[in-house]
């Protein structure tokens, strides 16, 4: 399946699959964990796609697979029209610089033995983007760009707060001069008071440099705030995919409705009037899944047909796709 907009596309993913083989005993067929199963979407240049869903639903695997940190099992990944799905490490080098990642945990993603200068200078030197004194000048520029102080460059990761470490992580991603950035839960390890600051930095950088983001999060409110379009993931599958406003005004999939109903509402009157949908039943196993709706074990509307085949993502209108037999 192909989902593309009429705007200039940065990343297009078609029927992407990432399966992991789990070893069993001798002479037995391996178990297959379907972490990402037939997912399609596209992101226009300079825009943000939010990917939401519960932990373990395959969001991070998608992020790592589109960057080719994992080899895809099947499907296609196109970066600005160029197919990169099967490129080997050497051929990927030209794209690696343009495609970067900001990691979830600023505590473990920075090398504790290196100071800020060395952490940020590493991609600049490795990719030969600057040389000699220009490397230091570029690091100072990046440190300033993410709101750190000039004297921070001589300090080590343990001397910083979580928010400051995430700023260092952002500066390191920017050092490669990227165009497309996978932001993998970039604020979930941070205090609520710091989360907005990091989101503001990401938004300002996008405005200034026209970055394209794949923003992975379980925080729907944050995803809604930052995204042009949103994909709702469940058990390795994309269940609904729409422009952000359209998703909130016209959500269709029972899982999306449950997710959104669980969002905290600031206004006490609205909160009292709203009804939270509590899902019952267990999440199915992603190992050797049957050909059925992945949400059938928890869906309040399940019918026999739901257990007979997996629903495909269908177009509702230009801005909206959903995977449900009853819609
Ligand atoms: Fe629910 Fe069936 Fe739709 Fe799946 S296909 S979401 S089980 S109604």
Unique bound compounds: iron/sulfur cluster
Low-confidence stretches: none
**What level of helicity do the residues show?**
25-40%
| Cα separation of the termini | 18 Å
Q: Helix count, per DSSP?
A: 10
Main-sheet strand order equals 6-7-8-3-9-10-12-11
Beta-strand percentage range = 15-25%
Mean pLDDT: 91
How would you spell out the order of helices and strands?
Answer: EEEHEEHEHHHEHEHEEHHHEE
Total strands: the figure is 12
Rounded radius of gyration (Å): 21 Å
Can you summarize the main beta sheet?
8 strands, mixed
Q: What characteristic shape results from the CA principal axes? A: globular
Structural class: alpha/beta
Molecular structure report:
It is a single chain. With 327 residues, the protein is α/β, with parallel strands linked by helices. Helices cover 30% and strands 23% of the residues. The strands form two sheets. Strands 6-7-8-3-9-10-12-11 form an eight-stranded mixed β-sheet, with helices on both faces. Helix 6 links the parallel strand 7 (180-184) and strand 8 (212-217). Helix 3 runs parallel beside helix 5 and helix 4 (133-145) crosses helix 5 (162-175). The mean pLDDT is 91. The protein binds iron/sulfur cluster (SF4). Iron/sulfur cluster is lined by residues 254, 293, 295-296, 299, 301-303, 306, 311, 324-326.
Summarize the structure.
The protein has helices at about 60-65, 90-95, 115-125, 135-145, 160-175, 190-210, 220-225, 245-250, 255-260, 270-275, and strands at about 10-20, 30-45, 50, 75-80, 80-85, 100, 180-185, 210-215, 230-235, 235-245, 315, 320. The chain is an alpha/beta fold and about 325 residues long.
């Amino acid at each position: 399946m192909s989902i593309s907009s009429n705007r200039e596309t940065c990343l297009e993913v078609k029927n992407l699959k990432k399966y992991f083989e789990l070893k069993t005993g001798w002479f037995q067929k391996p178990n297959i964990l379907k972490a990402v199963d037939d997912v399609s979407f596209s992101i226009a240049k300079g825009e943000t796609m939010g990917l939401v869903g519960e932990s373990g639903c395959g969001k991070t695997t998608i992020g790592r697979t589109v960057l080719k940190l994992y080899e895809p099992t099947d499907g296609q990944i196109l970066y600005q029209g160029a197919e990169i799905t099967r490129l080997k490490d050497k051929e990927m080098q030209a794209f690696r610089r343009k495609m970067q990642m900001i990691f979830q945990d600023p505590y473990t993603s920075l090398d504790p033995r290196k100071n800020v200068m060395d952490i940020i200078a590493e991609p600049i030197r490795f990719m030969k983007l600057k040389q000699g004194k220009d490397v230091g000048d570029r690091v100072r520029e990046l440190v300033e760009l993410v709101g750190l102080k000039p004297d921070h460059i001589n300090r080590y990761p343990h001397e910083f707060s979580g928010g400051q470490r995430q700023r260092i992580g952002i500066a390191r991603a920017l050092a490669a001069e990227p165009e497309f950035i996978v932001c993998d839960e970039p604020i979930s390890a941070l205090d609520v008071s710091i989360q907005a600051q990091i989101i503001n930095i990401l938004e300002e950088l996008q405005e200034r440099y026209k970055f394209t983001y794949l923003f992975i999060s379980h925080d729907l409110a944050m995803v809604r705030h930052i995204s042009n379009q949103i994909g709702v993931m469940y058990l390795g599958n994309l269940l609904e995919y729409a422009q952000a406003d359209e998703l909130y005004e016209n959500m269709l999939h029972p899982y999306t409705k449950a997710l959104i109903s669980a969002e905290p509402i600031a206004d006490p009157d609205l909160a009292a009037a709203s009804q939270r949908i509590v899902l019952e039943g267990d999440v199915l196993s992603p190992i050797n899944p049957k050909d059925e709706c992945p949400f059938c074990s928890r869906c309040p509307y399940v019918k026999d047909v739901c257990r007979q085949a997996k629903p495909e993502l269908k177009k509702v209108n230009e801005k909206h796709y959903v995977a449900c037999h009853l819609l």
